[in-house]
Amino acid sequence: MPVVEVAAGIIHRDGRYLIARRKPGVHLGGFWEFPGGKRETGESLVECLQRELFEELTIRVDVPIPYRIVRHEYPERTVELHFFCCAIEEGEAAPVDCEEIRWVLPEELARFEFPPADRVIIDALQSDAKKERAGQ
């Protein structure tokens, strides 16, 4: 089974994260996700993330910082998700190629239905936020 490489942005602002809802009719349609997309041939993961965020949300981000890599096997494909932390440098996020977007606090992430591969990222972000609040 081929591996699909994906770059996803953990975009933060004022203690909140930007999440996007996938359009119906696509793989995992209706689920919420950290925005991004599939890497194209000859493209670096950072280039992929920057392109996808501009196409999906009309934003440009600062230099993405690698956060975590998650490999997940779905029945129809294996995905390797490369998550990057970043902030908006230019533009205001608008749902161009997704159903809708929201800015949510780390503790609110569990209220949204994400694909199984994203669970580890949500847990990590919530843990990071607790440590930050505790001053660690």
Descriptive terms for the model:
single chain; alpha+beta; two-stranded antiparallel sheet; 21% helix; globular
Write structural notes for this entry.
The chain is of the alpha+beta class and 136 residues long. It has a single domain, classed as Nucleoside Triphosphate Pyrophosphohydrolase (Alpha-Beta Complex). It is 21% helix and 37% strand. The strands form two sheets. Strands 1, 2, 3, 4, 6, 7 and 9 form a seven-stranded mixed sheet that branches. A hairpin with a 4-residue loop joins strand 6 and strand 7. The chain starts with a strand and ends with a helix.
In short:
With 136 residues, the protein is α+β, with helices and mostly antiparallel strands. The chain is built from 2 helices and 9 strands; from the N terminus they run E-E-E-E-H-E-E-E-E-E-H.
Strand content: 35-45%
Question: How many structural domains does the protein architecture include?
Answer: 1
Q: Give me the CATH superfamily.
A: Nucleoside Triphosphate Pyrophosphohydrolase
Measure the end-to-end span: 42 Å
Judging by the overall fold, what is the CATH architecture?
A: Alpha-Beta Complex
> How would the global form be characterised?
globular
Helix content: 10-25%
User: Tally of extended strands?
Assistant: 9
Order of helices and strands: EEEEHEEEEEH
Average predicted confidence as pLDDT: 93
What's the CATH topology label?
A: Nucleoside Triphosphate Pyrophosphohydrolase
Low confidence ranges: none
Largest sheet: 7 strands, mixed
Q: What is the CATH C-level name?
A: Alpha Beta
Radius of gyration: 14 Å
Total of helices: 2
